[in-house]
Amino acid sequence: GGIADLVFIAARTDSEAKPSRSMSIFAVEKGTEGFEAARALEKMGWHASNTAELVLDDVWVPDANLIGEVNRGFYYVMANFQNERLSLMGAAVGECQEAIDMTVRYVKERRAFGAPLWEKQAIRQRLAMRQAEVDAARELVYRTAWLLDQGEEAVREVSEVKALVGELSNRVMYDCVQFHGGMGYMRETPIERMYRDVRINSIGGGATEVMLDEVAKRL
Length: 219
Prior knowledge:
The chain is an alpha+beta fold. Helices cover 51% and strands 14% of the residues. Strand 6 and strand 7 (115-116) form a beta hairpin. The protein starts with 5 loop residues before the first strand and ends with a helix.
């Protein structure tokens, strides 16, 4: 982003080859002639993560700045996606658990119509189901991490994790905001920020639709 001293640029280096075989990755240092971070981009969530529009105008870098082999960049990116997707979804499981714990505490304390919200069967059963789903998702993350640790590619399993947890985290946060009522809509509450932050989980690092196609190819 705009504060990085070093960025890695995936650039096309063979105009004749198909896209997957024409990308190379280069390290570009801040201050390189023709390279600049033009403007910061305002996001819905993840405000602590700086994201910027990068501009390259006839940028030249030495051969030493090439990462790996020429025209192999696409494969490096795809390999890195495995770790990125699993790490993001591992964090998402933790976010879901915190949101559920926070919401259970809230509905046990918040009184409406003469009794705590926890006394409403619809609320506690919905939270119970979300907890069961989060528990199952956690085990899927652990199993997939174990497969990668054994040297397996586990593309199908990682894609399943990304699709399932990405969607689940959005459902969990939706319900948790709902059960916080009007306070859940206020910027002063942690659940409001968490709701915005998890929206990227089903988009970044591979959208749910892309992940499901990766799974379908391997059925």
